[in-house]
Amino acid sequence: MKIDKDKLSPMMRKYIDTKEEHSDCILFYRLGDFYEMFFDDALLASKVLDIALTGKACGLEERAPMCGVPYHSASSYINKLIESGYKVAIAEQVEDPATTKGLVKREVVKVVTPGTLIEDDSLENTKNNYLMSIFISDEGSAVSYVDISTGELSVTNIDIKKIKDEIAKISPSEIIVNKTSFIDEIKSLSEMANIYINENIDEKILEKEVLYTVFSSEYLLDLGIKDDKALETSLSMVLNYIKSTQMKNSTNLSRINVYNSNDYMILDPFTRANLELTKTLRSSKKKGSLLQVLDATSTPMGARMLRKFIEQPLTNKNSIEYRLNITNDIKENFILREELKDSLSKIFDLERICAKIAYDSVSPKDLINLKNSIRSIPHIIEIIDGSESIILKNFIENIDTLSDIYLKIEESILEEPSMNIKEGNIIKSEYSEDLKDLRDISENGSSIIKEIEKKERERTGAKTLKIGYNKVFGYYLEITKAALLQANISDEYIRKQTLVNAERFITPELKEIEDKIINAQDKIKEIEYEIFKTIRIFIYENLERIQRVASIIAEMDVYVSNAIIANKYNYVKPNINTNGTLDIKDGRHPVIEQIMGNENFISNDIFINQNNIVNIITGPNMSGKSTYMRQVALISLMAHIGTFVPASYADIPVMDRIFTRVGASDDLSQGQSTFMVEMDEVSQILRYATKNSLIILDEIGRGTSTYDGISLAWSIAEYIHDSINAKTLFATHYHELTELESKYDNIKNYSIEVKEDGDNIVFLRKIIPVAADRSYGIYVAKLAKLPQKVLKRAGDILSDLEKNHIYNATSLCNLNDANEVKEDSGIEEDVIINNNEVIIENNEKNLEIKENEKYKTLVDELVSVDIMNSTPMDMMNALYNLQKKAKDIIE
Fold first, then answer.
1. Strands 87-93 and 25-31: what pairing?
2. Of 131, 268, 691, 821, whose CB has the highest number of CB atoms within 10 Å?
């Protein structure tokens, strides 16, 4: 909206000036008891917040659009704007309107963004809120991320090709990038993960002055950060951004974690989504995820760390075993486990209390919570010292009891203080003599006056002396004229008023008491506020000590949680190996087991070593192939987290990556079909997988024609076997792929066992080392209640197709043999391609019987319906389309 500033009123001109300085924000402009928004901000905010749009005279011909929210309840409105993808600048009155003549001065005191939230009602207790900076240059790239609500700050050098995986691992709320060209590359990822990308970056954000103000040169040199341009600039970006939004340096950031991304297993965004680690595919909530099953933490700090463990599995054998050994010692000692859980449950969110202290927003109640948390530390030490666990004793060996901080709060802060630090009722009377005197006066003012009255009556001998009060000159001593003739009054008595029958006096003592009584409450509040500030400063100076203790408590909480879950669900401690063997006995899916109940879930084994690399798994839809493969991936991942696993025995190799290609949906916004998405993901797997990776492939090639799909699936399986040698589970409905077992020693066939009972079948959910002999697609169609005529005709067609099965498989084998001939004889690639095309063309001619073409297409579509991974609406649409095509055929 174009505005002529010269015509605006002084207040609105100032508003526009402030808005121009924060053009990328919605400006909350404090006017009295409201934050007001004007012009375009008002038009936008009124819609997003669903509040009334009004107008205000502003000097222009038309009233300025205006809307507003009460300042005391602004948080909920700000949160809604942040969740909708906007930033909010808060402009406060920095002068007292009651004492200011003319225009009240207003300044932006904070800019609220998704990655810089610190208020309790804006944050999720069990999840970190990360702000990430990405610096990209020709010399190198680096990523930093910070949670200012907990004081965590990390940085790493990184290959630009790995940045997307790093974003998926950290899951930041907000990202700032120095290269605008890179923004387009991560936009699709940010939309999928609900990440706000800040596209307005000032060049000043790259300056390093703030970095060297917050941290010393010596410290940065010791960490290897100094003179590393990428690391320095990435850190500077994030620190400068915090300063520009919070209007102060990051005062709770005392340590930098310089990490190597190779220390953690790489999980691409698709794998994280498919395995439903912290949320399900259909919800942003943790219910139904691995996190929900594993979370028995007692503190918000522990819950956040557990989430981090799940999102960042380790790849170092010693580090993994360290976590497993601590968990094991806690699991094996019931009393230790229960006592630790009880003590941990009494500890509050120390990390976020520290942030409030640093950003000067801590409340008296927060300090009481801090004190009560510290009280539990000696008991935790006592519990562990009484155990036989050496590793646990070493873990808490150097923990700080924070006794001086406990004592300071215990001596000073009332047990039930006011929430507002300027309302009084915060500090104990015994902590300050002045405060004690003022409280005595405030609470016992009338009795003090009575005492003075009695004392003066006795001292002067004037029996009629009394103390009174009026609004003109406050407290006074009144003596009748008759008594005054015989009274012994001193020079301190100052006559203030003469009445017909009496005289009124004041004394310095009386005026001093008067001042204390009348102004006691205000002075009490002032003194309490000043005392509270000194206590906050004392604690702030010891903030790093509290943060170190908080980190130990959080990690302890995770180990106790792991032990509780392992005991509750009968999980076993996995063995971690480096020989590449994956051996799981009686493995269960950790999430589905809880949904179905342990007694109803069918466990399964898996064994992969150097002689058994690729497992081809065949079997009907709905039989449990996907569940089986996912549980193998999840059990492997849980072992790398350092948790026990749902099995009777598990020997897990150290893996660098887990890949999953499970299901796909059209990405029409990016112009990509299901098949294109599928091929994109497979391409990433084949490019980045190594012999230490685990690959889960489910129904590759189903998005294209049958023979294209078979050819691609066959070739992909061969490539993994020959060129990657990665542990692979390959589920398919292409039975032709089972022929691979006869050609390769390291490819094995498996299937889901099925029991046939007449026309009915039962999926036994058990993996057996044989190929499935049929797909049972028509039986699934029967469950979907397709017309009987269609089912019968499909059965006839299936019989004809099965007669050609051996020929088709042989053709594919010949195709592979042709490739081998090419490699041995140097035959040109285009010749082989032509030969392959001839083979495929012959196959198609063999089956393209005009009479059966429509029926075959219908059967193919029916078999390819992924019932287990489809929503009810998806199934209704699929069934509708199948029935429509069936009716067309019948007609």
1. parallel
2. 131
Domain membership of residue 815 (yes or no) is: yes
Say which CATH number the domain at 315 has. 1.10.1420.10
* Percentage above 90 pLDDT, the chain: 62
Are 184 and 323 part of one and the same domain?
no
675 in Cβ contact with 709 (< 8 Å): no
Residue 425 belongs to some domain of the structure: no
d(CA 775, CA 862): 11
Q: Which residues contact 99 (CB under 8 A, 6 or more apart)?
A: none
Pairing of strands 658-662, 694-698: parallel
What CATH number does the domain containing 50 carry?
3.40.1170.10
Q: Are residues 473 and 511 in the same domain?
A: yes
Indicate the DSSP class of residue 426: -
Q: What confidence tens digit (pLDDT) does each residue in 164-222 have? A: 999 999 999 999 999 888 888 888 777 667 889 988 778 889 999 999 999 999 999 99
Answer yes or no: is 294 within a domain. Answer: no
Q: Give the dihedral of Cα atoms 679, 683, 686, 689; nearest 10 deg.
A: -110
* Total Cβ atoms within 10 A of residue 402: 24
Neighbours of 85 (CB within 10 A): 11
pLDDT band at 662 (very low <50, low <70, confident <90, very high): confident
- Confidence (pLDDT) at 639: 98
Tell whether 289 is covered by a domain.
no
Per-residue pLDDT averaged across 615-637, rounded?
A: 89
Domains held by the chain: number: 5
Same-domain check for residues 561 and 595:
no
Do 98 and 129 reside in the same domain of the chain? no
Q: Above pLDDT 70, what percent of the chain?
A: 86
878 lies in which domain range? 575-886
CB-based burial, 469-500: b 16+ in 10 Å, e otherwise: eeeeebbbbbbbeebbeebebeeebeeeeeee
Strands lying side by side in the sheet with 196-198: 196-198, 174-177, 131-136, 141-147, 152-157, 257-258
